[in-house]
Amino acid sequence: MTWRKCSTCKNEINYSSKYQQCSISTCRKWAFCSVDCWDTHNSVMNHRNGWAEENISPDKMSTDVNASSPERSPRRIMVQSKNVAGVIPKGNYPREVLIVVSKLKAYVKARHDMNTSANVMERLSDMVRIICDEAAEKAQSEGRKTIMDRDFQ
């Protein structure tokens, strides 16, 4: 039985064995069976300051104990949002226009043969913020840190 497979060549990485991990934080989820496999990854990802870090995979016994332990800590921490749906929260976040003005004006002109007031962009940006806040709350309630298309109603 193996711990994981190499992210490059798909060879098996056994429990309690050495493996390589990328030093770049966004690539830490991948494991490589050798420095050569990490080097292949590096040539694709083109890291300027990356290196391979040697680690030892967990042993089978500690993995089995943690998996069956009822006191095991949760993988995700649920965060309760303080936002009330439909209200733009106060705080230190960007208040700039989120809408591409020229694209919206061109759409309204082509579709409805109407002009668009400049005040529309601020109101639409506020509406987009509200919708995004609601989607973020839904993603957080499901224990995710990524907003997905299914979070928008």
Overview of this structure, please?
The chain folds into two domains: 2-62, no CATH class; 75-153, no CATH class. The chain has 153 residues and is of the alpha+beta class. The model is unreliable at 80-86 (pLDDT under 50). The protein is built from four helices and four strands, in the order βββαβααα.
Q: Strand pairing plus helix content: what structural class?
A: alpha+beta
Provide the spatial order of strands within the biggest beta sheet: 1-2
The proportion of residues in beta strands is 5-15%
Number of structural units classed as domains: 2
- Put simply, the count of helices is 4
Gyration radius from CA atoms, angstroms = 24 Å
What's the number of extended β-strand segments? 4
Largest sheet: 2 strands, antiparallel
Note the gap between the termini.
43 Å
Into which percent range does the helicity of residues fall? 25-40%
Mean pLDDT: 81
Order of helices and strands: EEEHEHHH
Overall morphology? elongated
Q: Spans of 5+ residues with little confidence (pLDDT < 50)?
A: 80-86
